[in-house]
Here is the input.
Amino acid sequence: LAEARDNPALFDEFRKKMARRARGFDAPYACVECVEAAVSKPFAEGLAFERASFLKLVASDQSKAQRHAFFAEREVAKIPDVPKGTPTQPVDTAAVIGCGTMGGGIAMNFANAGIPVTVFEVSQEALDKGMATIRKNYAATVSKGRLSQEAVDERLGLISTTLDYGDLAQTDVVIEAVFENMDLKKEVFGTLDATCKPETILATNTSTLDVDEIASATSRPDKVIGTHFFSPANVMKLMENVRGKASSAETIATIMGLSKRIGKIGVLVGVCDGFVGNRMLYAYRRQADFLLEEGATPQQIDKVIYDFGLPMGPFTMADLAGLDVGWRIRQGQAATRPKHLRYSTVADRICELGRFGQKTGAGWYRYEAGNRTPIPDPEIEQLIVSISQEQGITRREITDQEILERCMYPLVNEGAKILEEGLALRASDIDVVWMNGYGFPRFRGGPMFWADLVGVQTIYEVMSRLHDEHGDWLEPAPLLKRLADEGKGFGDL
Here is the structure.
């Protein structure tokens, strides 16, 4: 104690050290304050301070949110029509089609769990490049002291490579991780169907495409399922497991069990454009883009979302992920896009300039060589202003509160539609998807739990007003209206 009293800066130094990890959370800082009180106050006062801090934290929304998160992550395993005890298939071997960023990360998950995995690619060059990335990822883990070189060598020994589909004939489960293109995926599944033993489960790592259409390319739709991993696949905890209309109970139970075995939290969802996570992300991103056209800047929106507790705002996140993937998806959807609905062209115009994010040194922001820090770019701000003029939109001052409501309330509203359509089993499953796949702050308990804290009535009233002001994209979900009318929340469902 005497040593600590002689160094009062000790506590501020510790707060600085933990700032990144503890950002937004109250409890870690309260812990430091209690230790500080033990040093600076008489014993009885220190105890009283600690007790008061504890009681305040227990009654807080953050405590409720984190308890909700704890139980929600255990609830996801319960599937009414796939009860505990449903027979599962053994998974002693696995294969991954594609050794790009996602494929390589997925292969690492199997190796980390002690499951031998074969990685297939169309060229030796692609295989060599992918394996080099896997080795680099493992080397980084060793350098941080999280794994021994022996353990890494053991894991690398479980990963084999091939250019021949025939080598996958006896594999128990195959996960396809090729480019997000329906024709290509169907071609791969047709080949796998003809090559693999009849009981092999064929899974697709699609983030948006129709699992039922992919399954139609096979003679075993009951063995086809979506396994949407999140990037980086060797780190992110979430696995959105997408049940097709023909996916059997045995296939679902096997994949849900496999999720846990490879260290993931598996959440079962239904088939729709973007499934649960990305479909909600579209609703949030769409409004962020509209806010740009109306007067906000990328850095203002990103700051509001970051301050709310997400790891980064939508534009920083897009630059990190790469803008070209979303652009290609939007180009593919252009012919079927409803003409009466508002569409923002800002992201497309940025891609047309060859700016695809961090990997090209410029996207929504610009980046200096070897530095990932986003730097606001006057060129982009000028482009946004010119698009506003083209659209006949008079730019205005946008408040931080409007940004938060326009981004987060439509996110909740889309979640309500998903629940009503039966694409998620529970509101808490949506919370698990968003906390583990998109970095929604755990201290807020996920978007649906947070909506209950804000008040469904409040969100419904704001959505109704926004719908009147901005049109169809913001129409309140019928379930949101019903819960508001009944004075209930998503937790009551």
